[in-house]
Design brief:
Helix content is about 20%, strand content about 20%. It has about 110 residues and is α+β, with helices and mostly antiparallel strands. It folds into two domains: about 60 residues, no CATH class; about 35 residues, no CATH class. Strands 1-4-2-3 form a four-stranded antiparallel β-sheet, with no helix packed on it. This is Cupin type-1 domain-containing protein. Keywords: Signal. It holds the Pfam family Cupin_1.
Length: about 110
């Protein structure tokens, strides 16, 4: 069916790879125990264990070979041109709007 289930072991202050559906077995970041959330494909995100003990999560991935999507391509290499002022890319990355336009040109936007 194109979905893989995995167990993720979070070392203290550790960060795993990309996930689509995540169930927190212990408290993760701002999540509560047994909290479930879904992320859209290509949405920039990460999980990190900010605790002092290991944490465990179970995730459903969109395929058996989950990939890494780099922030630069997701933010600056979009097929549709993203106006740096409209979405606040310049402010979010603390860059001048001219720099954002140059990055978009380099990453194919």
């Amino acid at each position: 069916m194109g979905i893989s289930l995995v167990r993720i072991d979070y070392a203290p202050y550790g960060q795993p790879r990309l996930t689509r559906i995540l169930v927190a077995e212990r408290s993760l970041s701002l999540s509560k125990e047994h909290y479930i959330y879904v992320r859209a494909i290509g949405m920039i995100h990460f999980q990190v264990n900010i605790g002092k003990i290991p944490a465990i999560a179970f995730a459903g991935l969109s395929s058996q070979n989950a990939v890494v999507i780099t922030i630069t391509h997701a933010a600056f290499g979009s097929n549709s041109l993203i106006d740096p002022r409209a979405l606040g890319l310049a402010k979010a990355f603390q860059l001048d709007a001219i720099i954002v336009k140059e990055l978009q040109a380099k990453f194919g936007a």
